[in-house]
Amino acid sequence: MMEPSSEMVTSFSSSRLSQFTNRPFVISSTSSKVPYNDQTWNFLDALCTSTLPVMSPETRYDPSLVKPAATTDSVRLYSDSLDLSIDDEYSKTIRATELSAFPLPRHIESKLGKRSILDKLRAQPLVSSSDSALVLSNSTLSKDELTNSALVPLLGNTPKHGHNHKKWKLNKVLLGHTGQVTSVAFDPFNKYFATGSADSTIKIWNLAASRLDLTLTGHIMAVRGIVVSDRHPYMFTCSEDKTVKCWDLEKNAIIRDYHGHLSSVYSIDVHPTLDLIVTGGRDSSVRVWDIRTKTAVYTFPGHKSSVNQVRARATNPQVISSSMDSTVKTWDLIAGKCDKTLTYHSKSVRSFALGAENEQLITASSDGIKKFQLPDCSYLQNVEFFETNKIEHGNTIINTLATNADGVMFGGCDNGKFAFWDWQSGEIFQQGTNIAVPGSLEGEKGILCSQFDHSGLRLITGNVDKSIKIWGQMEIA
Question: Which helix (H) or strand (E) holds 57?
């Protein structure tokens, strides 16, 4: 496929680019004595630096700042039984008077010099008087029910190369959205996660308690992507309403809107070391935005159809995108142009994943799953595909891939099929078929989004049947 010429790449005029690059970016670096030593970096200089400063997990946040969630907030909760009888004690609507969204790192909180999150929330009116969530659990099922239950995955293949990954099981099902659940993201502390939905809302959930804490409204159409920054107290969302929004998680409010996409925005990611976000959408473009000025730093129009997913990396290639045009492209932020185009697929690439410390790339399409080595994008191997019959093969649309640090990759499909892979060997060690929750249609068993938490021990999936499913590892490998 022909690469886009430099003329095709839309960027700043020289005067605007000069104005942008002369404005310093503040990037925090680590020090054994001073955890947060702010250094001033020019944008292009920082991009050209071979090793960008990255805050280590040990100095990035102080867990002692985490405030316990209020115990008075309640949601509709299904007890551990399948008769779905509701306990009157929990048949209350959520009260959002004592909860906080995501705790702030100490260096951000001290610089802001403002009241605590709890103080602000106490002074605010109720977020919603009708928010509710349902929790299903499979802990009381019998052994036979566990084997056949819609809430438990089918156990799959025995690995061939000796990897010893534990099997995964479904622990809980959360209900609260009134539309398909299209996106999920975790906060840096691994205490909360956010979900976006076709109902145009974003919901904040307490991970440990499986509790709905907050519902945020602001988009007027389906929310398609969510990402939470680990360097700022910000969450970013994108939507079919053509907008990208920045949410202040201290205020639980929108503080910035980014306008420029000509149609629905399908995917979003935040750069790990620079104050940039990357978006892709139905207008076939990949756009790079300055978080603070809301300016489009680059607009890359190289794809010929909708952009399904974008990811940002600290090292080259710094932006990766996949598209309905069956290609995967890498983008050079220094040169402001497409670096490489992968044309190994013949059908749309809905999803891809980064693994092996972000040095390898796996792309997924109906025609197969393939692994590449970064940064040169050299082809490594084919990855084992789902077990399908002749009719299903070639029509299995893989909507989502997710990976954890233990070398496990999860994939979910439009037809409800899912699988867990060993990243290194590319072999499936467990697979099954998702079942829609009671009251849903058979065709609503598709899986739309997935993400492992920061520990890698829990997996969240968002589904066509409007449910959120929490998966965990089984005790025995």
Answer: helix 57-60
Residues 418, 408 contacting (CB under 8 angstroms): no
Distance CA 98, CA 366 (A): 46
Instruction: Tell me the C-alpha distance between 345 and 352, whole Å.
Output: 12
Could you tell me if 87 and 79 are in contact, meaning their C-beta atoms sit under 8 angstroms apart? yes
The answer to whether residues 171 and 460 touch, using CB atoms and an 8 Å cutoff, is: no
Count of CA atoms in the C-beta half-sphere (13 A) of 236: 26
Quick one: DSSP state of residue 261?
-
- For 62-97, the pLDDT digits (tens) are 434 434 333 333 333 332 333 332 233 323 333 333
Closest CA to 291 of 242, 257, 320, 317: 257
Concatenated DSSP letters for 391-435? TTTTT--EEEEEE-TTSEEEEEETTSEEEEEETTTTEEEEEEE--
CATH topology of domain 134-473: Methylamine Dehydrogenase; Chain H (2.130.10)
> What residues contact residue 213 under an 8 Å CB cut-off, 6+ apart?
69, 73, 94, 96, 99, 101, 192, 204, 205, 206
Q: Name the helix (H) or strand (E) containing 227.
A: strand 223-228
Neighbours of 395 (CB within 10 A): 12
Could you give the residue range(s) of every CATH 2.130.10.10 domain in the chain?
Answer: 134-473
Burial of 345 (0-12, 13-18, 19+ CB in 10 A): buried
Per-residue tokens: 159: 């690995």
Please tell me the distance from the alpha carbon of residue 289 to that of residue 270, in angstroms, as a whole number.
10
Q: Which residue has the tokens 């997935």?
A: 450
Tokens of 370: 């393939």
Contacts of 122 (CB under 8 A, 6+ apart): 97, 98
Instruction: Identify whether the C-beta of residue 354 lies closer than 8 Å to the C-beta of residue 311.
Output: yes
- DSSP collapsed to 3 states, 322-377: EECCCCEEEEECCCCEEEEEECCCCCCEEEEEEECCCCEEEEEECCEEEEEECCCC
Angle, vertex CA 53, rays to CA 51 and CA 59, nearest 5 = 140
CB atoms within 10 A of CB 387: 15
What is the tens place of the pLDDT at every residue in 194-229? 999 999 999 999 999 999 999 999 999 999 999 999
Report the predicted TM-score, pTM, of the whole model to 2 decimal places: 0.71
